[in-house]
Amino acid sequence: MTAGDLVAFILYLFQIVIPMTQLTAFFTEFQKAMGATERIIETLNAPEEDYSTGRALENTSQPIVLDNVTFAYKPGEVILQGVSFAVEPGKVTAIVGPSGSGKTSLFSLLERYYQPTEGVIRLGREPIGNFSLQSWRSQIGYVSQESPLVAGTIRENICYGMERAVSDDELRQAAKMAYADQFIDELPDGYDTEVGERGIKLSGGQRQRIAIARALLRDPKILMLDEATSSLDSKSEFVVQKALNNLMQGRTTLVIAHRLSTVVDADQILFLDKGRITGMGTHEELMRSHEMYREFARQQLRMKELVQEI
Ligand SMILES: Nc1ncnc2c1ncn2[C@@H]1O[C@H](COP(=O)(O)OP(=O)(O)OP(=O)(O)O)[C@@H](O)[C@H]1O
Ligand SMILES: [Mg+2]
Fold first, then answer.
1. CA–CA gap between residue 304 and residue 310 (Å, rounded)
2. Each residue's pLDDT tens digit, 200-210
3. What values do phi and psi take at 105, rounded to 5?
4. How far is the CA of 100 from the centre of ligand 1 (A)?
5. Percent of the chain scored above 70 by pLDDT?
6. What angle do CA 22, 26, 32 make, to 5 degrees?
């Protein structure tokens, strides 16, 4: 090889190495992007819910009746088994039971996120599937277990899902009823404070109260509350409890209770165990007749005493 050939070879070599590294870097980036968009594409491809087909719902002051409802997310794995009960309009029905017994799943059926595998849910005499999703869901206020917030301001989070404009007075009133006005006013930007992704900048109790304010603002006829399992300190618990009491007034309420304070005043208590209803009645009745309910109540009471001792 001549000296000239060698120099040319080395120069070419340098020129080829750089694009090669760029090419490999591109493929790693490409793979990463593929992984990241998989979920987005899955969501975009999911069938859209039919929101408008069906009758408009007029009279909500009728009992909600579950008739022998069985439900499974996957065939063979039964989550709810032959559940039957009625919820009277304007009354409070509390659902208690161990973790994983299917309480939140029951709410998903009532919200019509899923269809029962067997059996039927009725409002009065009519299966709820006859009403359009739009008119059914607009009657329901749902405070879910995690009280999820979206990235944005407190104002946006409280007004989330409202179809009309909300005045400042209305907003304040809802926050006040939810016992959220005080901590919001103490924040430097008040109602315009950014809550961060999933509400990360607020505490659990604060998030819950914002979720309650959101439900209050919608003024729903049917209220579904899924109490958070995570324990609040007794002071926040007391405040959240008061906010919930405000919210429940004069509505058909279904509440999944993890705290005794919510259940004692309920008109009807259902005990759900492994997807079956094993007890139904008032607090006194269940205390007398239901072993597991007694246990639940005793544990809750003991917690209360411990808190007071401290
Ligand atoms: N989206 C889902 N897909 C598949 N299985 C699910 C889904 N959601 C819940 N499950 C299963 O259903 C069962 C009941 O769950 P559910 O959330 O209804 O319990 P829960 O009574 O609300 O419990 P907790 O008191 O802890 O909130 C669990 O075994 C759970 O694994
Ligand atoms: Mg749950």
1. 10
2. 778 777 888 88
3. -60, -40
4. 5
5. 94
6. 150
Which residue in 162, 136, 143, 161 sits closest to 59, CA to CA?
136
Angle of helix 168-177 relative to helix 204-218, nearest 10 degrees?
A: 120
In order of 69, 142, 227, the CA distances from 220 in angstroms are: 25, 9, 18
The three-state secondary structure class of 160 is: coil
Closest CA to 299 of 257, 260, 270: 260
Contact 86, 65 (CB under 8 A): yes
Task: End-to-end CA distance of the chain: give it in Å, rounded.
Answer: 89
Q: What is the pLDDT of residues 196-236, one digit of tens each?
A: 878 777 877 788 888 888 888 888 889 898 877 655 666 76
SS3 103: helix
Give per-residue burial for 52-63: e unless 16+ CB within 10 Å, then b. Answer: eebeebeebeee
Average pLDDT on 180-188 reads 84
- pTM to 2 decimal places: 0.80
Is pLDDT at 180 greater than 80 in this prediction? yes
Other beta carbons within 10 Å of 296: 20
User: Which residues are catalytic, by number?
Assistant: 227
Q: How far apart are CA 106 and CA 6, in angstroms?
A: 77
What would the pLDDT profile of 121-147 be if each residue is shown by its tens digit?
999 889 998 999 989 988 898 888 877
The residues facing 122 across adjacent strands are 65, 127
Q: How far apart are CA 57 and CA 140, in angstroms?
A: 12
Alpha-carbon distance of 216 to 178, in angstroms, equals 8
Best of 69, 74, 83, 103 for a ligand 1 pocket test (most atoms within 8 Å of beta carbon): 103
Identify the residue whose C-alpha is closest to ligand 1 atom 16: 102
Q: Is the model's pLDDT at 182 over the cut of 60?
A: yes
Residues having CB closer than 6 A to ligand 1 are 73, 79, 97, 99-105, 145, 229
